[in-house]
DNA sequence: ATGCTCCGTCAAAATCTTTCATGGTGCTTG
DNA sequence: CAAGCACCATGAAAGATTTTGACGGAGCAT
């Protein structure tokens, strides 16, 4: 094999994984360790990789190490599509209340740079939107729940009593015919108040949430106004939502860079309401 | 496993949970405790985490808000020393209110992993402490002031009316005989309420703040209880503070790894008040 | 005191660097 | 043309270095 080809292959292997042990590279290429060492040294000198004891790591962007993304990985593409679709339903100038959670965080991502007023009790969402010039951000205080970084409790509830928004966007831990559930009763308590703040209540949830229950019941299905789900929604669940009188928006996850055009809308047009 | 990979994994585990015991990390990675210790030490040195008794907590930089870094450069070492000294004056189990600002952010850094209850209106500080298991965090909500990431306004003030803390720690834009000044009147309004919340009021400010005025007067010197300054404090300013009846703590910035022992304390010992 | 954690030391294992031998390639030269 | 030679990439081995795991004593809080 040509030395140049071998090095390119080497770089490719390391880049793909983010790292590689010398041993694995020797086995992969079928050359001696000396050769691999020399190649790695050259690549290090060129700045493409960084040599470490026992192997090498990719020197460029920290492509967030595939192994580390496990948890976020659950229905990530679906969540992104849901976020884009939900954001597309928000008008410029609107006020939105965003609950905590990974799905609502995707909504926030899709809202970055939009001229909207966002109220949230989620620290990650606040962090995301604080830098934005266009977005007005109002943070709900309270006791910060360490695992998820959301503000809960009486302080958060009290703060919401003086706040009204056009749309309250809430996540869900589980959705069954009996209603919407979440895992934590303190969280549910706070979310109930959120629902009172919103002229409309939008639930965002990927299809895996359907048929699952969680600890605490947030509300009945009919208490929400609309829901955004991904394409994996089963027909029976769709019927259940329609039956409860919800506007159902199905987000298509086909293309990676979802452009946020809602793919499907049932039960009439949403009324325009520019400010 | 590659050492580099192991460290990244380690950092990821700690970042995810905010805190991890050494034991849990040993079990998770399947390596010896010595190795984990060494890795944690390296990560601590790099500033990514902070080593604690029996484990480690996340202490990484608060990214994605570049605006905050600009001012950090000024008197960075002094500020770190001030932070360490101020944190050393806080007892375990205490409740503390932390104002926004780069100096108070250093106080928060020094408090990471301590068993204290922190109330703050600063997004960066909240971000820093949200992960920590030992630290209870209560966030004050309100309109997020984009430039600095602090929550201000009526919502913040209202939230504080139900809160009492042992020590309120406030930053200052300028300190002159007429009192303590800050640059923004909305900020000052909020800070006034902070002072009412605290049994004691501690001002943290590096020596460059002395003799400088700012837009809005926060309070007279005598309204604060104590002040933490760095070693650059001039004699005349020291006399001014003493004259106002403040406890003055001078932070020594000599060693890089500030251990937080107050270098000098005037006007009596601080009284112990364990919970 | 007891249990837990931390720190320093040490030996074993893994890895790195250096050095040298081998074989192929291309050029020079008789 | 072909032998000789320098050159280079490669593989292998030896000694140096780093990393790792284990152990014992020190420090600290309960």
Which key phrases capture this entry?
275 residues; three-stranded antiparallel sheet; alpha/beta; 16 strands; 9 helices; homodimer; 2 domains; disordered C terminus; Arc Repressor Mutant, subunit A
Explain how this protein is built.
Two copies of one chain form a homodimer. Chain A has 275 residues and is an alpha/beta fold. Chain A has two domains: 3-67, Winged helix-like DNA-binding domain superfamily/Winged helix DNA-binding domain (Arc Repressor Mutant, subunit A), CATH 1.10.10; 76-265, Rossmann fold (3-Layer(aba) Sandwich). In chain A, 35% of the residues lie in helices and 24% in strands. Chain A has nine helices and 16 strands. In chain A, the strands form four sheets. The first copy, chain A, has an eight-stranded mixed beta sheet, sandwiched between helices. A three-stranded antiparallel beta sheet of chain A has the order 1-3-2. In chain A, strand 10 and strand 11 form a beta hairpin. In chain A, helix 1 (3-17) crosses helix 3 (33-46), helix 4 (76-88) crosses helix 5 and helix 5 packs parallel to helix 6. Mean pLDDT of chain A is 84; it is low at 62-73 and 255-275. Chains A and B meet through helix 6, strand 6, strand 7 and helix 7 of A and helix 1, helix 7, strand 6, strand 7 and helix 8 of B. Chain A binds a DNA duplex (30 and 30 nucleotides) through residues 3, 22, 31-35, 37-38, 53-54.
């Amino acid at each position: 094999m040509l030395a140049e080809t071998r090095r390119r292959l080497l770089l490719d292997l390391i880049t793909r994984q983010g790292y590689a042990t010398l041993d694995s590279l020797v086995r992969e290429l079928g050359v001696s360790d000396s050769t691999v060492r020399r190649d790695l040294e050259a690549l290090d000198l060129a700045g493409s990789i960084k040599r470490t004891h026992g192997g090498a790591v990719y020197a460029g962007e920290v492509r967030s190490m595939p192994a580390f993304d496990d948890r976020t990985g659950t229905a990530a593409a679906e969540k992104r599509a849901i976020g884009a679709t939900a954001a597309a339903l928000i008008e410029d100038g609107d006020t939105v209340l965003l609950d905590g959670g990974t799905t609502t965080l995707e909504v926030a991502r899709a809202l970055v740079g939009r001229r909207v007023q966002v109220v949230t009790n989620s620290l990650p969402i606040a962090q995301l939107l604080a830098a934005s010039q266009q977005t007005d951000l109002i943070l709900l205080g309270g006791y910060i729940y360490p695992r998820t970084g959301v503000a809960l409790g009486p302080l958060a509830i009290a703060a919401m009593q003086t706040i009204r928004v056009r749309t309250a966007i809430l996540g869900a831990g589980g959705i069954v015919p009996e209603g919407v559930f979440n895992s934590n009763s303190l969280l549910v308590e706070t979310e109930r108040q959120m629902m009172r703040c919103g002229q409309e209540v939008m639930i965002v949830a990927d299809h895996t949430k359907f048929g699952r229950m969680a600890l605490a019941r947030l509300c009945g299905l009919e208490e929400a106004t609309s829901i955004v789900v991904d394409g994996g929604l089963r027909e029976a669940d769709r019927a259940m939502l329609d039956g409860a009188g919800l506007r159902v928006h199905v987000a298509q996850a086909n293309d990676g860079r979802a452009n946020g055009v809602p793919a499907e809308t049932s039960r009439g047009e949403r009324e325009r309401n520019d400010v």
